[in-house]
Specification:
Mean pLDDT: 97
Number of strands: 17
Radius of gyration: 22 Å
Number of helices: 11
Shape: elongated
Oligomer: single chain
Order of helices and strands: EHEHEHEHEHEHEHEHEHEEHEEEEHEE
Largest sheet: 8 strands, parallel
């Protein structure tokens, strides 16, 4: 496999995106979801990049999901106007949310408590603004949200709708799917997610409150949903680049991972069979998401510059700016196989965490040329 020589020119460590893999990953999920009669509301939190979003959002009003108001503001600055802020709203953030609405952004906020609802309605009535609200539904006990069969869900819907806010929809996230170990388990999680949100939606609508949007989403369930009847949109984020955690879950293969960190060999400890590289946890993150899975990749899987994985070779130890690759016993490779100044690519455990360590990304375009994408930072 060949690769362009410009990969050796930028300062290391740097984050590299493979445009061809990135586009293929997007096409695969969009074709699946749209084929089931729904649409993707992509979660932009992995790369948080306006340039990357152009591949996901067909026009300025295409639905998008973010995890911070900084993202909402950054993507609004880039011209995108249909944004779900999918983290429970804190009352002190309503000023920023309102400013986005006054700019013409169709911003949707999320809540799941009476206290949040009171803050939203009081602010709305005092400041002459109408908020578009999603209520989070708990489909698997993973995190927040209200049970789909609870009275609390109906009470919250009645509290918020028509009192300075419009109940736009219900949202569920099958976070437990990340712990699945078989395709059958993921398919069951996808079914449970859809069943929970449909039950919640039916109950809210039967109570006389319009609830036009039912939104589900997690990267594993998005890929393994067998049907999406009544589901308006599917949210997923890390599907664009994938990572080693998703590979272990069974959602992708190594050849689908579109994100890597390019690093330079800076030293050896021949007595310990160690190779030092200039990508430590500041480049890779401290995420050890594969440690509890069936295959542990340390802090990342080591690949050649052509992107070919070196079997059983991981970044085993990280300091702030040093990564240490420990050669396993019996390896055919030696420290001499990695000359000082040579470069390697490291596939990450968690793409979102690794991307967060970089303010910009270099992109290996389909034609082999270099692009630069920028990251929206902050909260």
């Amino acid at each position: 496999m060949t690769y362009p020589q410009w990969l050796h020119e930028p300062e290391t460590p740097y984050l590299l995106i493979d445009e061809n893999r990135y586009q293929n990953n997007i096409n695969k999920l969009y074709n699946h979801v749209e084929g089931l009669g729904s649409q993707v509301r992509p979660h932009l939190k992995t790369l948080r990049s306006p340039e990357a979003a152009r591949y996901l959002l067909k026009n300025n009003d295409s639905p998008a999901t973010v995890s911070t108001l900084a993202e909402a503001e950054g993507f609004a600055d880039a011209g995108y106007t249909n944004i779900l802020y999918a983290v429970g709203i804190a009352p002190h953030k309503l000023d920023r949310a309102a400013r986005l609405i006054h700019r013409g952004v169709n911003l949707h906020i999320l809540l799941d408590t009476p206290e949040q609802a009171s803050a939203v309605t009081e602010y709305a009535l005092q400041h002459d603004v109408v908020f578009s609200v999603f209520i989070e539904v708990d489909c698997d006990g993973h995190r927040g949200g209200l049970p789909p069969d609870s009275q609390a869900l109906l009470d919250l819907a009645k509290q918020v709708h028509g009192h300075g806010a419009e109940l736009k929809g219900l949202m569920a996230h099958a976070g437990e799917s990340y712990s699945c170990r078989t395709e059958e388990d993921i398919r069951l999680a996808a079914k449970n997610e859809c069943d929970a949100i449909r039950l919640a939606g039916r109950r809210v609508r039967d109570s006389g409150i319009p609830c036009p949007v039912l939104s589900v989403g997690a990267t594993p369930t998005a890929h393994f949903s067998a049907e999406l009847e009544g589901i308006n949109e599917v949210r997923a984020g890390v599907f664009t680049t994938f990572d080693l955690v998703m590979k272990n879950v069974g959602v992708c293969g190594l050849d689908d991972i579109a994100l890597s960190v390019v690093t330079t060999v800076i030293g050896h400890n021949r007595d310990k069979n160690w190779i030092f590289v200039d990508a430590g946890w500041m480049a890779m993150s401290r995420d050890r998401g594969t440690a509890s899975q069936h295959e542990d990749y340390g802090y990342g899987l080591v690949c050649t510059m052509a992107g070919e994985p070196l079997e059983r070779l991981y970044v085993s130890i990280t300091n702030q700016e040093h990564g240490i690759i420990v050669l396993p016993a019996g390896s055919s490779l030696t420290t001499d196989s990695f000359p000082i100044g040579s470069r390697l690519r490291i596939l990450p455990n968690h793409a979102c965490a690794t991307a967060a360590m970089h303010h910009r990304y270099l992109v290996l375009s389909k034609n082999g040329e270099q692009q630069t994408w920028h990251r929206i930072t902050g909260w």
